[in-house]
Amino acid sequence: MLLIRPLYPFFLGIYFVLFVYAENLGDVSLDMLPKPLLTVLLLSAIFFVILRVLSGSYRIAAPITASLLVLIFLPPSLGELIRGYYRIDTYVVFLLVLVVTAIFCVSAMRRPGRDITRNRLLNVVAGVLVVVSLLQITIYEFGALKNTNGNDTKAFSALDLPELDAPVEKPDVYYILLDAYSRADVLKDYYGHDNSTFIRNLEGYGFDVAGLSSANYHRTFYVTPALLNYDYIDYQSAPGAQHMQAVTHALKAERSDNRVAAIFKAMGYEIFSVRSTGDFLHMSYAQSIMPPRTAAAMNEFDDAVFETTVLSNVYRYFSSDLVREKRDSVNFVFDQLASIAEVESPKLVFAHVMAPHQPFVFDATGKMPLTYPDFGKDEFLAENIAAYSGQVHYINTRVEELVRTILSKPGTPPIIIIQGDHGLRLSAHKNGRLLYDNTNACYRELYANLNAMYLPGERASEMFHDAVSPVNTFRLVLDSYFGTNLGLLPDRTFFPIFKEGFVAPEFVDVSAEKETCDTAWESRFTGLN
Question: Is the CB of residue 511 less than 8 Å from the CB of residue 493?
Fold first, then answer.
């Protein structure tokens, strides 16, 4: 009996949410699914009931409801394929859907006897889409569960660790990741932001600042496993390494059970992981500290589902204030770090601050900005640059306050690393979405990152150099202070080329080009300053 009922609009709504989830496997968790699923089902029901009342027939209400959902939740990849690859305007797509809907409705009215056949067919098609997405998610989550149980995880805690000669007085170590914080010269050349005062202040506190540092990757998902295992990503030995799912498993496992945390745990360090959002610095050995979130609060998955739809503003209105959540979460990390500085030594503290990464929710004084320009859209390039500059300025004030707090504590001088994981990447975004190829790339804008280290003692300063990259961070720290002999790797930069389907990316070495920029983007950036 169920198959003859017009359930396909509801199946379509479920599919659109599952589609986005499946496209972001590895960056999302199952607890994020219920709220957007319920929201879409409620929306589908509202559309269906209203249209049923207005038309007097479910034969009309069902196809119109389904068409409205397609218009609202057209999967971004399909929408970009239609509008971008074939250069068809959005309004043409809209018109095509309306025409198909009109034909469907006329057919439903003129041939009511075929309702059962039509409903069965559409229910089966939409149901298959849901089942395929559910299978993909289930297979992935089952593999993730196996990793959690230790079946497939490479146990760095038990092997492959260097010999140590730890000092009696162990220094506290702070690693602070400022997401999308660009290098000083790029800030000035491309964004018109003079960061020289902040850099001089850090140097005045005793920091070494790498003036030519570049990130090893331009996505945090790849940056942190390399950082925490002081080596470049090599997933070729993972089972099924040609599949994105296998790579995601392998990298999450190497991030969670990483060499750096295992080494410091073995030396008796208490380990903290403080994050404003996300799991990029989540690890098995650390005490995890994140800001509290209300049930109504939007998360990254909610934003991914609704950000490309006409309902984005409505959804944010009924959710808690996304801007306030971002502001509170950023300030939360800095406040927690100041509190952790009081904890008894030795401690290893990781922090991931989702700033100055967009959205831009601070002006230069820390207040709410007057406007919130859509990120990655060409018409808002100047506004985004100005907003980024303001947010950088505010983050600088919080960083300096924190540095003064940490350095004021008595005892063995600490080690403090403050890094950007990559640049702002404005040149790699289109309509708010990060692009998957390096066509017309402005590598300098993607990779040039802040890299500042407070390294007491002579040996560390001797190893430090102006182009040192994140992958060498803990090689430098461990060799200088804990008696290892790892040495530094060549500083290299890679661009992941994503292929169609769920094939693992190919990492292309762009080290020789990392200071270059596409001439069109170079002109656009410099033309605004």
Answer: yes
